[in-house]
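Pipeline run #58 for the internal structure catalog. This entry was flagged by the ingest filter as a single-chain record with no existing model, so it goes straight to prediction. Upstream metadata was stripped on purpose; only the residue string is passed forward. Reviewer on rotation: M.T. Logging verbosity set to normal.
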Amino acid sequence: MKTDLEIAYDAEVKPIKDIAAKIGIPDDDLVPYGKYIAKIPLNELDKYKDKQDGKLILVTAITATPAGEGKTVTSIGLIQGLSKIGKNVVGALREPSLGPTFGIKGGATGGGYAQVYPMWDIDLQFTGDIPAVAAAHNLLSAMVENHIAKGNELGIDPTQIVLKKTMDMNCRELRNIVVGLGGKGMGGIPHESGFLITSASEISAILALASDLDDLRERLGNIIVAYTYDGAPVKAKDLKCIGAMMICLKDAINPNLVQTLEGQPVFIHGFPFANIAHGANSVIATRSALKLGDYVVTEAGFAADLGAEKFMDIVCRQAGFSPDAVVIVASVRALMMHGGADLKDESTMNMDSLNKGFSNLDKHIENMQQYGVPIVVAINRFPTDKQEYLDRIAEHCKEKGAEYAPSDVFMSGGEGGVKLAEKVVETLETKKASYKPLYDLNIPLKEKIETIAKKIYGADRVEYSAKANKTLKQLEDLGYGDLPVCIAKTQASISDDPKKKGAPIGWTLTVREVNISGGAGFIVPVCGEMTLMPGLAKVPAAVNMDIDKNGRITGLK
């Protein structure tokens, strides 16, 4: 079979103006970035605000494993499949980040015959949205440091600066650093700091959650950057640089339009990670897609315990929309790994490990059922999967009373997504969603954390460090107790221990520290060994990438 890049290079795609025309957007309303990518300004999208919303389909998955689940592939294939059966469908997906693209995860543009186009541009810088966020973030950081060095009228305590620096690359060596060396005149005030990957910046979350320019401005102003010697929060607006930050983000707030390999329109906009932020594409893009399509396919980062929970409890509350159906993606070998199989030992990839691995799928089905939304399990077929294993997953779904359908989109594109598309449409037509969030915003922060830990993760209890306890009390005293919580934890397990597969029981969630994203509008309890700056793998994906004299890229996936 051809590589993903070869398939993309050989695809017969249309100019982006033709894709926009399919959903009623004229050429004059586009800001083109070459022939196949365009931004659509917010004022142009406002023309469609009075149209009726389409049906929203949220795609999530079982817990991530090295075997792969195929969530983005399935999302894109479902878009193509819905189009194959005659539906007016629009996608709304997140942008890839350079760090993971060059690291271990790879890009986020699908694969095989279920891709968005052009993958090489989308995976590598795209329209500059992530660099724009990095510029706004680092401008704010520079303003904080400059304020302290030039008199510190706000009384900022250098030991309580909570805003770090950012870059869009995996660099573990920059997680914890000391800045300000060289004397006050040369380096400022020495203090501990560090870097986080740009997708973990609060500004990434703000850009994805903002509803318009006014909302973006207000949210940026509410970012807490530090605390004073008296313990009072210092906000970004106190540093009088919000206008300059808005200039950095003036284009980034406009959603990007691309296409699938089969010519369906897809908004790709927003990039917060689901293990450390809320993990969904932008509210602006999803709202626009709902006005322009009868069916909208979006996805939440990582598994249902992370991105999907945060979509339900954070995004839906703030945006005012909710899914009409949820698709949970599962694959044979990923389920086997949750049943104890070892990818390095093929003999362990068997029916016994598959049956044991169903505990993970069952837990995610249970998790999504708590929100009152109809569910379909997508059985994502990999080229090497044996039919008996695929049949066993279908049999298990039937035993559990869960709707299911096969998905063969990697090998067959939209044609391979027809059965899944038909099942999703049937579910939408026969089952009504009754969305409800998991918890009430008026309960204490600890109760919110414990509700998620017990009902979604399956933990018995929650333990808090002294530092976490102190911060939670401080945040409630400051009036932030009514915010939702966005738990940062490993994506490799439902628990906070990446080594625990399946659906662990009898364990304790450990909250190490607590941060606040005042502009994004949520509290971030950090659990286990979670970090906001990834590192590279022993053999990063970057070592297999190259570009020839004709500009043709190899090794990107």
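catalog note: The radius of gyration is 23 Å.
catalog note: The CA atoms of residues 325 and 374 lie 5 Å apart.
status: ready for reviewer M.T.
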